[in-house]
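Researcher: Let's try something more involved. This one mixes different molecule types, so please make sure each is placed in the same coordinate frame as the others.
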Amino acid sequence: MSSSDMPKAYNPKDFEDRIYKYWMDNGCFKPKEEGKDPFVIVIPPPNVTGVLHMGHGLNNILQDVLIRYHRMNGRPALWVPGTDHAGIATQNIVEKKLRAKGIERHELGREKFVEETWKVKEEHHAIIKKQLQKIGSSCDWSRERFTLDEGCSKAVREVFVGLYERGLVYKGNYLVNWCPSCGTALADDEVEHQEIDGKMYHYYYPFEDGSGKIEIATTRPETMLGDTAVAVNPEDERYSGLIGRKVRLPLTDRIIPIIGDSYVSMEFGTGAVKITPAHDPNDWDIGNRHNLEKINILNDNATLNDNVPEKYRGLRVKDARKAVIEDLKAEGLYIKDVEHSHQVGHCYRCNTVVEPYLSKQWFVSMKGMAEKALNAWEKEELIFYPRKWENTYKHWMNTIRDWCISRQLWWGHRIPVWYCDDCGEMIVAREAPEVCTKCGSSSLTQDNDVLDTWFSSWLWPFSTLGWPGKTDDLKRFFPTSTLVTGYDIIFFWVSRMIMASLEFMEEVPFKDIYITGLVRDKQGRKMSKSLGNGLDPLEIVDEYGADALKFTMTFLSAQGQDILIDTESFKLGSKFANKVWNASRYIMMNVEGRNIIPFEKIELKEIDKWILHRLNESIKSAESAIEVYRFNDFAQAGYEFFWNDFCDWYIEASKISLYSSDEKEKDRAISMLVYVLEQALKFLHPYLSFITEEIYQKLPQTEGSLITAEYPKSCGQNNYPETDESFTLLQDLIRGIRTLRSEFTIPPEKKIPVTVFMESSFKAEKFFISHKSLIAQLVNTDNLVLTTEKPSIDGSVASAGTGFEAYVFIRDVIDIEKEVAKLRKEQQKMAQMIKQTEGKLKNGKFLSNAPDDVIEKEKSKLAEFTERAEKVSFYINELG
RNA sequence: GGGCGAUUAGCUCAGUUGGGAGAGCGCCUGCCUUACAAGCAGGAUGUCGGGGGUUCAAGUCCCUCAUCGCCCACCA
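Model: All components are placed in one shared frame. Result:
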């Protein structure tokens, strides 16, 4: 092994692609054949519409961290990749593309259009897959799925028909949310409400008998053409006696009744409401209660249809509104309009204003399934991280409404329902029927509509494993372990997966649900195309490498917290990877020509025990962090160990041995370094995947790949608390002396005498003495005295630790004023601490209520502060 | 209108059962010390949003106010 194997500069481009290929070629991403208790994640399938943004990046990085951690811990680890056909979103993109070429989808025809869409799908799929691979996602590509592939389609038909057979799928004529631009119905959740500054229009409806008129107020005057009643609150004294009378609907020749309904608020508007059952959800309910006629006045593109007087036909809603207002004015019925801001529904895909629209649609009855899902949560079969999202889940399940699943689109799973052209029979079937089950006619037409995208994704955790087939994968890997996703799709997706799974698999699809934060820019704004503040994961990989991306995102993933980043943020990970690279290079350089001793045969010195103890403690904290999805703590444990303990202390200390002439000691020291590095690489692998693999394979005495190596576990064996305690004191000593040197600006190369006085009770006396040369090296002195005799402090400045004091002789360079000022500051601090501690100890209540160990601690603190205060006063006198 | 969350160093944020305030970046000082200047050593900086309460003890628990954010909701 030669150091030339490691280039001087860390350059991730040199090896990341090669390493990923190595993993692929060696089947490293497949779950191992043997072994129980598999760890399974199915990817939240990205939409094939787009490319991955940083939100996806975060999501997949965290999944990868989990998968890699559990894979190394010996569990068969499976991460199923896949993509979503994303019905409306994809169809919109393809339509836009065609429109740019001057082609409308209807000109093309359904078949050709779908063909075109598959092409677009393939293009985007290739990009997405490449992106996931670039960031190192260790998914099992041999099991990749797509929501529209044959297996998923089979699952979809099975579920549709299954629910139909259970009476949970039904077709009905209902008021749905209609997107005139997409030309399809939307589910309630797909409507986004936005605050719009609109107007409230006031005008009169005259009584039929000409005896007067009633003032109504509305935000949507054009819908009056579909009015079938005027409603007032029966309690409203202003209108008492009017209920049951009739008004003439202006601009039309219709006569409609005045009805009483407690829904109408007496405080709002005029207290009289026009009722349009076919175009407003509330009016719909009122219409049902009062058995009113429902007049649909719109076409599916939001123009007015033939149910309105001829002059309004074909007008768009906006224009119809103007026309209606003009005509009301002309008839002298118009009163006024007032500013009024209110919530208006918009399509979540194209942002068009959504119209309540009467049409025939397919629905899933949700209440029963929601109850089961709620029940599973109450029994703690599901846990959200962080738990606060359980409120959201609960609330949604409690207020759930039936799910409109039909979409008037071409891209998606076609509804498995056929109609007989001859007798009109409706046939709901898993496979296309040959002939009508009623009349035997072979002239059948399939329902034109497709299913909501989520109707395939809600089956994802089991359809991807082969359901409805009884596959080995399904048996072995279902239910899955953890779902990692964003909070924006708890309703759309998470909740529905739980319901589908309980319904068809009779158990929850996953136990843990980790909800990631949202990725935002440094100003806290959502990343969006229009703001141009989005970050492309691939650009980050290009600039800093995938490991920098992965580490940074993991390190910043505090549970329940959004992540604010810009390009600069990734320097954090980049620097860390660089540090790992260089520390490894240092070790590799010193491996050359040395005899590497197996760890079991290395004779451990105190400092070796110390680093083993630190490693052990760090692993322990990493273990407990990942257990509860505290990714930031998980990453921080590795970061601090590697940088602060291993590099800053252990490697620095190793230089004494490695640069000595003691060949045996050199062998011993490098063997320890290699061993600890190997453990550290394993430790860091979940988030520094490429670089650790690259280095691991260059280490002496390693075989195979790191990705499938065994993760280090915390254990009792590497537990050396006394050594750790002593070493901490030694660090205090060295830092104290360095601080003095720095404060008095003693040039680094200048060696000055140091005397360390250790009190008789000092616990680490032996430890200090045995590490004398190390101390001397790290504080740069050639005259170090360790003594238990009180030394003279003449010409020195001092640094105090617990049980010892270090005197740095600096007569030649001392700045008395500076030193005195510093001591005064410390004197004040000590006085304050003493006051605080004494206060507690004089407090009878404290003494009687606080636990003994706390009281003891306070006492020893007081002693410590008092002693220090005395010393400080003494120094001030001496110097001043 | 209902619900949830946030407010800690200049910035972004940790702080897990209440027990002597932390990290990264930035800033200041000194160093190109034979792994790393993407580095090393050292340093400064906080009435933990305001007010009240519980407690021997509050960044941590309770109440209240303020500011910001998110989600849900049919007031025409």
